[in-house]
Design goal:
- This protein has a single domain, classed as Sandwich (Immunoglobulin-like).
- It is built from three helices and eleven strands.
- It has helices spanning about 15-20, 80-90, 90-95; strands at about 20-25, 30, 40-50, 60-65, 100-105, 115-125, 135-140, 145-155, 165-175, 205-210, 235-240.
- The longest helix has 9 residues, at about 80-90.
């Protein structure tokens, strides 16, 4: 499988003579050819809309890949990268766990009702099989212990230029941190508590999230109120092929 990339390769000249070409016997300089970067053959805009009432979303990670991997599997343990994203909103490790992909992380938190668009270009060498382009994405609901919204392995191969696909991203529980909802364990603006903790003190498998309870609904010690509750989805996702 070829390694995926989203930007042209940059050739750095180590010495001036290496870049100026070779001289023939008559002292004339023969230009040296420079490899041509692979042209961009397809581009996509991925727009994410926060549809929660009071759950800011961490900077989302968007991943284009082939069909061989998923960011998570229901009923299986979260990877270390997914744990870090789900508890602290940090996507850096999740990205590094999947080097055979084209990915980008959003620049900032997405507030309720706000939207962000992430544009990704794919070159002709981005995938070994251009007919199997898959989309995955994930973002933490930051006023939770370890909830994240996302999609994994969505086939977007059949989108033509100008076509759009609209989806909603379900909410999952990473299963790595107990849903105590306490001020000490919620990293978002509701509490500014601890984010990532290496200890796994919950069921240790990914599942659909049952929702937060909140102090208003009787969970003693919860820092959350009814405004932080959610029902099944947190993001509207619009994927548009632009080239």
């Amino acid at each position: 499988m070829k390694q995926l990339f989203a930007v042209p390769t940059i050739i750095i000249c180590v010495a001036l003579s290496a870049c100026s070409g070779d001289k023939d016997e008559g002292g004339m300089t023969t230009p040296t050819s420079t490899p041509t970067p692979s042209p961009i053959v397809s581009s996509f805009d991925v727009t994410l809309v926060n549809i929660t009432h009071n759950q800011p979303l961490s900077p989302p990670v968007v991943v284009f890949h082939e069909s061989e991997f998923t960011l998570w599997t229901i009923g299986e343990s979260a990877s270390a990268g997914l744990e870090l994203l789900s508890e602290a909103g940090d996507a850096s490790l999740l990205v590094s766990e999947n080097p055979m992909s084209v990915n980008m992380v959003g620049a900032s938190v997405v507030a309720p009702s706000d939207r962000v668009t992430i544009a990704i270009d794919l070159s002709e060498n981005s995938f070994s099989d251009g007919t199997q382009i898959r989309l995955s994405l994930a973002s933490m609901l930051v006023n939770t212990n370890d909830a994240f919204a996302g999609l994994t392995g969505v086939d977007i191969s059949q989108l033509s230029v100008g076509d759009s696909l609209m989806l909603v991203a379900p909410i999952y529980d990473a299963g790595t941190e107990a849903n105590s909802e306490t001020a000490a364990t919620i990293p978002g603006p509701a509490a500014a508590g601890e984010g990532f903790n290496i200890e796994r003190d919950d069921v240790n498998f990914v599942a659909r999230h049952s929702g937060v309870v909140s102090l208003d609904d009787g969970l003693n010690g919860s820092i959350l109120d009814q405004s932080h509750r959610f029902d099944n989805s947190a993001m509207r996702v619009i994927v548009t092929r632009t080239q």
